[in-house]
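Ticket #4471: structure export looks truncated?
Reporter: QA, pipeline team
Priority: medium

Steps to reproduce: submit the single chain below to the structure queue and open the exported record.
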Amino acid sequence: SGIINGCTNFMLTAMDRDQKSYDEALAEASDLGYAEADPTLDVGGFDARSKLRILMRLAYGVEVDEDEIDCRGITELTKVDFEYAKMLGGTIKLLGVAERVADDKIAAFVSPCYVTADDPLFAVVGATNAVEVLSKNLVSSTYIGQGAGRFPTANSCINDIVALAKGDSTALPFNPLSKDEFVNDYESTFFLRIQYNDKVGITRQCGEVCEKHGVSIHSILQNPITSRQDAAFAIITEKVSLKAIKSVCDDLKELDWCKDDVFYMPVLREDWMR
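Actual output as written to the record:
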């Protein structure tokens, strides 16, 4: 798992630490040269997805069409999400994650994720990238460095140009293709943010929808309502499949009190409630 897009990590740091809006954070990233003129590849998560595909080939020997990888960027995030993340004691990072979910199956996704304050990725701020590799022998290894900006980008490009001019050759970086299968589903604890028009019975209906899809609720969070126009509460689930969460979100959206699409994001670690 890792932070593999410097622009979005810079923006999320500004939204969390400096309490800036999405638009304010994007404008600052553009002014500093971290965001492209068209930032869609960054904020939509697509740049991170392209990098995750390469990392999957390196780590697992799996060749995947990147369009098959579930990808969600940061455009749906609001200040409310960071308020609830702080209430839980953590923050939000845009992560690319690939993991072995069975002996011969690999799952992967790009998404905003809730990260606890004691997580190694929590302290990675600004336009910095960090990739954590988990293995049986090394347990956890984290590789960190600048991930956006004119000088880091120019440095990498010039290094490649000089290597080509010198005729340098290196061993092929990829392992042979494996027989592992990519599956576009995974299990996690999930955070749901629901915007609503206040009425009696909302909590009951949420419970009924979750029960219908086999989703157990861990907790419900609600800040004091300061504006009925953007009132929102959050649900934290127990560990469930992405497929089940998408079904819950679809059903909640159809209820008459639900004002917009339900935002969801995974919680990075299973032991997040330490």
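Status: closed, not a bug. The export was complete when the record was re-opened. Leaving a note from the reviewer for reference: The mean pLDDT is 89.
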